[in-house]
Amino acid sequence: MRRDTGLILALDETDAAKAMMVAEAVADKVDAVKVNWPLILSAGPEVITRLSAVSDVICDLKVADIPNTARLIVEGAVSRGASAVIVHAFTGEDSMREAVSAAGGAEVFAVTEMSHPGGRTFTAPHAEEMAEMGVRCGVAGFIAPATRPDRLRAVRSIAGRLKILSPGVGAQGGGAASAMSAGADYVIVGRAIYGAGDPASAASAFADELRPFI
Length: 214
Prior knowledge:
This protein has helices spanning 16-26, 37-43, 46-52, 67-79, 93-103, 127-137, 149-159, 176-182, 191-194, 199-210; strands at 7-10, 32-35, 57-63, 84-88, 107-111, 141-143, 163-169, 186-189.
């Protein structure tokens, strides 16, 4: 995944036509488009392939299952054109290793801590342990919250040179610049871009904010 702007679009639209329009409008301003279940369920998994013609696609499936099922899900996403897949770390080392193996040349990012308030309950207390496990399993990097820069710094201290993608910028209250300062390589922005009247201008504004960190 390139790092021209440090910006990733979380495309949580449910209208396939609008999703494609937004992706095309911001393609030169983002390094990747992240798709989650809302778009995949409404538009079908073929939307991954369609988007992959426009941008690198991160499948945010938050895979959390036994090793065999994790393999099948990751293989399915990659076969449709995904450049990366996001996997929950709490399922353990065997599932994580299977996901990494199944990805082949694609990247696997492990969730260490969720960005919403509830993330403090179960994921935050074990984020460092999950990051250590991810390093052992060979993940490409981690998901760590822009909403809590101190927690992002803790994950960075373990991740070394691995990538950190940081969600929660914009609608959830996290700051793009503060996330980068805390150790993120990319920030993930959703509603503040795809929900804007002019998504391209909104993406440009975030890219401008991130430029000093690239």
